[in-house]
Write a structure and sequence with these properties.
This protein has 183 residues and is an all-alpha fold. The chain has one domain. The protein is built from 9 helices and no strands. The chain is globular, with a radius of gyration of 17 Å. The protein starts with a helix and ends with a helix. The relative contact order is 0.13.
Length: 183
């Protein structure tokens, strides 16, 4: 139901559009609550609701997407710089250091825990980021277990794994474009 499925079925263009819409789906209500109640943590509840609603939508019999895009949308309201730094570090770790597609895809959200703890120090934000990551991890258990099983048996290639996700294809294209030797 999410951007990954749309990308596989409809192509990268539609997967990217749906990923952007999923980000906006969490960003807008989270931002509205943050603007209306600037001194309260209601926006964190709105973000958690958007994430949970994406993963377990009522209108699809509680079978939705993984939740990465709505997590990013809610995190952008909470701390845009943290999202940029943690995801850039995630890409570096996944593509350059560990060469693992899963690291590229999910380490950024887990690095937000460290960022919020060190930079913000707000217990409510820390709890929200942990809850968002647990929801994301819980939704991805079937796919991650299959990925790790295939990886252990030597069936996984980082290039093939990146091609399965719209964000992965985008990251791969950017990485190839920026690292190819200049004439």
């Amino acid at each position: 139901v999410g951007a990954t499925t749309a990308s596989i079925v409809l192509g990268a263009k539609w997967g990217g559009i749906i990923a952007l819409l999923d980000i906006i789906k969490a960003f807008v209500p989270t931002l509205i609550f943050r603007l209306i109640f600037p001194d309260q943590i209601y926006y964190l509840f709105a973000g958690a609701g958007a994430i949970a609603g994406h993963i377990w939508p009522l209108y699809h019999r509680f079978r939705g997407g993984y939740g990465l895009s709505p997590v990013l949308g809610a995190f952008l309201v909470m701390d845009p710089l943290g999202v940029l730094v943690s995801n850039a570090l995630s890409m570096f770790l996944g593509l350059v250091v560990l060469r693992d597609a899963v690291i590229v895809m999910v380490a950024g959200t887990w690095l937000m825990v460290l960022w919020v703890w060190l930079v913000r120090g707000d217990p409510a934000m820390i709890i929200f980021v942990l809850v968002a990551n647990l929801l994301l991890g819980f939704a991805a258990i079937p796919e991650l277990s299959g990925y790790f099983r295939d990886r252990k048996s030597g069936k996984v290639n980082i290039d093939e794994a990146m091609q399965k996700f719209p964000m992965g294809r985008m990251i791969q294209k950017y990485f190839l474009k920026t690292t190819k030797p200049r004439d």
